[in-house]
Write a structure and sequence with these properties.
363 residues; mainly beta; Immunoglobulin-like; 4-stranded antiparallel β-sheet; 15% helix
């Protein structure tokens, strides 16, 4: 209420607010004047309150549905983990009022408004904005976006977000009970994985020997010394920033089986002497029922054959037939038996061993 106005009488003399409104006015007339002032003050107060209310709700959001939501930190847990979730109250609008807009950009940590055209707009479903997209590629992925929500005034407020997710290959584990075997002195390939955990967060250790990472993620190479009969592989994983034991697998340890000796692709039976001479050496192959392909190299051997009532022996300090052996083989007759014995081979573990003899009959 203004009380400092320029008030004057008919003669132009300056008056204060009280004289201007109440001088020479009957008392009965003063009451309506005061009530008028009171009414004007009340009206001014109402206008101020209404103005403040309009300003306060102008930037509010309109919602007609409220629901409780549970936001778990993760929905994949291991035994001994602690479940953690945030419970919030979410509000949304199911009417046809201006709806929020959500834009999502894959493989990004942030989505500035300037890159809005590069992002994908998410359609509204019953007042909710559901993000759905096909996943491709294994491992950790990220996406970012923003939500633009219109206020009652029509202006938009923008809220940015970013998150990540992990894509794993569907898998099944079938473990043979009696075939968990590792072999001495050679590279034993192992595939180690933990469901829901990326390969780079898996850390296995072996009780004896060495365990090193292979060329591809999830593959490991175990090398076992010769004095061990059993080992265990314990696997830990980095889950939610902490190391957790995932389990232990026991393995039996065995030496590699002996390879089979061959000449001219024959390990026994009938063979042409020309084929033996053409081959010129003894080679070894792993048994046919053995799944791994390891190489054994012949170090020395002895060739024995009978002529009449005499037994003749010839030795070689390599895998090759000597000149003397080749000459005697050339002189053999049909049905004559040649025995290659005392065959010493060196395996991939670096140790020498003597393998079974090779008995051939000249065709």
């Amino acid at each position: 209420m203004e009380t400092e106005g320029d008030y004057r009488n008919k003669g132009g003399q300056k008056l204060n607010w009280e004289l201007h409104h109440f001088y020479d006015i009957p008392l009965a007339a003063d009451i309506p004047i005061l009530n008028k002032f009171i009414s004007e003050v009340n009206n001014a107060e109402l206008e101020v309150v209404n103005g403040l209310l309009r300003e306060s709700i102008e930037e509010d959001f309109k919602y007609d549905r409220i629901e409780a939501k549970v936001l778990p930190k993760t929905d994949y847990l291991f035994t001994g983990d602690e479940y953690e979730a945030e419970v919030i109250v979410a509000a949304y609008d199911t009417s046809h009022s201006p709806s929020p807009s959500v834009f999502v950009l894959h493989n990004a940590d942030t989505l500035p408004l300037s890159k809005r055209e590069e992002a994908t707009r998410i359609a509204r479903e019953g007042g909710r904005l559901m993000v759905r997209f096909p996943v491709t590629g294994l491992g950790q992925h990220t996406y970012a976006g923003f939500v633009s929500v219109p206020t009652n005034s029509g202006r938009e407020r923008t809220y940015h977000f970013s998150t990540d997710y992990f894509v794993a290959q569907p898998s099944v584990t079938v473990s043979p009970i009696n075939m968990n075997v590792l072999y001495v002195g050679v590279e034993n390939p192992l595939s180690i994985s933990v469901s829901g955990v990326p390969a780079e967060n898996i850390f296995p250790v072996i009780s004896r020997g060495t365990l090193k990472a292979g060329q591809t993620k999830g593959n490991w190479i175990a090398i076992i010394p010769g004095d061990v009969r059993e080992v265990s592989v314990a696997v830990s994983a980095n889950v939610n920033g902490g190391m957790k034991p995932m389990g232990t697998q026991q393995f039996r340890v065995k030496p590699l089986p002996d390879p089979d000796p061959y000449i001219a692709n024959k390990k026994d039976g009938f063979v042409d002497r020309e084929s033996i001479i053409s081959a010129g050496k003894i080679v070894t192959l792993m048994p046919k029922d053995f799944e791994f392909n390891f190489t054994f190299k012949v170090q020395s051997f002895k060739m024995s054959m009978q002529r009449g009532f005499e037994m003749y022996n010839y030795t070689s300090d390599s895998e090759n037939l000597t000149t003397e052996m080749l000459r005697e083989i050339q002189r053999t007759n049909r049905g004559q038996i040649i025995v290659f014995e005392d065959i010493v081979v060196k395996g991939p573990d670096g140790a020498d061993r003597t393998i079974e003899p090779l008995v051939l009959v000249i065709r």
